[in-house]
Design brief:
Blueprint lengths: L12 E4 L11 H9 L3 E5 L12 H10 L5 E6 L4 E7 L11 E7 L3 H10 L7 H23 L1
Parallel strand pairs: 1-2
Antiparallel strand pairs: 2-5, 3-4, 4-5
């Protein structure tokens, strides 16, 4: 695709999963980015516990509920490593207090990753991931319905 139609090659890929916000610091967003040598961003809907990281899902959700105004971002780090950011893309005004977890995958800084995720978000989950989820679930239902009638 890249050699035959470079105009179709994506500039960045949002992955429904983790990048460096991962126990081994190498989640699916990192894997895809390295394999394809393309910029990737990990966007996870659930918090993945990492040893040495003081944050947990409950405390992060409480922090977002208590925040007065956007931007709602909490750096997820320990003494010497930044793993990612907990982000509420909608901010306090839209009532989005359940964060998503953004991390670098490959060839993207954390600040750029968060900015791209925010710009792609009309809801809690960025549009490319939200639409992919909806379409894959619809297709799975079609296949399941077809299998049950056969």
């Amino acid at each position: 695709l890249q050699s035959e139609h470079p105009e179709l090659w994506p500039q960045v890929v949002l992955v429904d999963g983790n990048g460096t916000l991962h126990p081994r610091r190498f989640g699916s967003a990192c894997q895809l980015g390295v394999e394809l040598d393309i910029p990737t961003i990990g966007v996870a809907k659930n918090f993945l516990h990492i040893d040495g990281l003081s944050a947990d899902a409950r405390s992060l959700k409480q922090a977002f509920q208590q925040a007065a105004a956007p931007p709602l971002e909490i750096e997820l780090s320990n003494a010497d490593t930044v793993y990612g950011m907990a982000v509420a893309p909608g901010g306090g005004a839209s009532g989005a207090t359940n964060p998503i977890f953004v991390s670098t995958g490959h060839r993207v800084s954390l600040r750029t990753a968060v900015d791209i995720v925010r710009k792609c978000s009309r809801h809690r989950v960025p549009e490319p991931i939200r639409v992919a989820d909806q379409r894959s679930r619809a297709r799975a239902r079609e296949i399941e319905a077809k299998d049950s009638t056969d």
